[in-house]
Write a structure and sequence with these properties.
Layout (H helix, E strand, L loop, with lengths): L1 H23 L12 E5 L4 E4 L8 E5 L5 E8 L2 E5 L5 E5 L3 E2 L3 E4 L4 E4 L8 E5 L4 E7 L3 E6 L2 E6 L3 E2 L9
Antiparallel strand pairs: 1-4, 1-7, 2-3, 4-5, 5-6, 8-11, 8-14, 9-10, 11-12, 12-13
Length: 167
């Protein structure tokens, strides 16, 4: 009897571990990509709808090309997205790009030559600048915009997860 209980406990623990690992990264049912994840606007403007179809009402229009958006759900050819302010809805996937961008959340954010606050400053980006996202380590990301680029502290960027690493 003791062996059966031990075997049952072992099976339960193993099954729980697999479930916990699967829950750690939620995947989209259509793309099998992580949810949430960041993308950018491919188009100059895109209708944001209440639901995932053309029959749903347009609530507003995103009007900024390359703006970073966070995908929070998928349904067919539609992605539920939200912007930095939490405004969002459903957008057709053709209006989105996998090219990663970030929004600068600190005015005159210093961009450094290396991921070190003591390294020389290459530029200062204004609040609201949309920049192309490059490599990221635990605390810094390489960004570029308007011909300038360098390393910025991740905490001042919207469009990258806090624990995200990129090569």
């Amino acid at each position: 009897m003791g062996r059966h209980v031990a075997a049952g406990c072992l099976a339960f623990c193993l099954a729980s571990g697999v479930t916990a690992a699967q829950d750690a990264v939620k995947r989209g049912p259509i793309t099998n990509l992580p949810i949430p994840r960041y993308v950018s606007m491919k188009a100059n403007e895109g209708n944001v709808r209440r639901g995932p179809s053309l029959t749903h009402r347009i609530d507003w229009v995103f009007k900024r090309r390359d703006m970073p958006l966070q995908i929070t759900a998928e349904h067919g050819h539609w992605r539920r997205v939200q912007d930095r302010d939490g405004a969002g809805g459903w957008v057709h996937y053709a209006l989105l790009s996998g090219v990663r961008t970030v929004l600068v959340e600190k005015d005159m954010l210093q961009v450094h030559a290396r991921p070190d606050p003591q390294s020389p400053t290459n530029a200062a980006f204004e609040l609201g600048v949309v920049a192309r996202l490059g490599e990221c380590n635990p605390d810094w990301c390489h960004i570029s915009a308007g011909g300038y680029g360098g390393w910025a502290e991740k905490q001042f960027l919207w469009g990258v997860l806090p624990d995200e690493l990129r090569d």
